[in-house]
Design a protein that fits this description.
mainly alpha, Papain-like_cys_pep_sf, Prot_inhib_I29, Inhibitor I29 domain containing protein
Length: 82
């Protein structure tokens, strides 16, 4: 099934580096490879959202920027319960 979501203009290597940097910065550790992959996917989706939002900011379509934070690898349900 083809993805209809816009993609980041980053290589897989750059995304992996951002994921590694994120985990170091926010002291995240996922010993289970399946959970790490799931959390990375959530993080990548958040990166896409931030990128799209901030492009609208640059075009003066919205008035504020957003960024990645310590919750960027959590699901919506997990963020609500935090």
């Amino acid at each position: 099934m083809a993805s209809e979501q816009p993609t980041l203009s980053l290589t897989d290597e750059e995304i992996s580096q951002k994921w590694t940097d994120y985990k170091k910065k926010f002291k995240k550790n996922y010993p289970d490879p399946e959970e790490d992959a799931m959390r990375k996917q959530i993080f990548v989706e958040k990166l896409q959202h931030v990128d799209e939002h901030n492009k609208k900011y640059e075009q003066k379509l919205i008035t504020y920027k957003i960024g990645i934070n310590q919750f960027s690898d959590l699901t919506k349900e997990e963020r609500i319960s935090e």
